[in-house]
Amino acid sequence: MRLFRFTKKIRQSLALVGTVWICTSTNEPDASYYKLIFANEDQVEGWVKYNSQEEEVKVFSADYKKTKNILHVKKEDDVFMAVYDRNQITAVVDGQKMRFSKT
Fold first, then answer.
1. Residues 40-87: pLDDT tens digits?
2. Beta carbons of 101 and 85 less than 8 angstroms apart
3. Domain ranges of the chain
4. Under CATH, to which class is 2-102 assigned?
């Protein structure tokens, strides 16, 4: 029976692998959007597209863990949690509520 539980946990994390999520509501006047890219089953990258730059800028790479519909994202001492559903990730980061939509 343990084998089946382990497989389910892997499947939960794999649901996000390779997906890209965009948040267009930003508190930064120069930021066009924020982007999350789930690189593999335990790494997520954060990107920002600034209006003044042509290319997106990678702002962090962090570990993440998905437990049911909760994402725990951790980079060193910084931690935030988000609520995941198939089409949206909602998080509060630095006091700002952010809604990321799947692209």
1. 999 999 999 999 999 999 999 999 999 999 999 999 989 999 999 989
2. no
3. 2-102
4. mainly beta
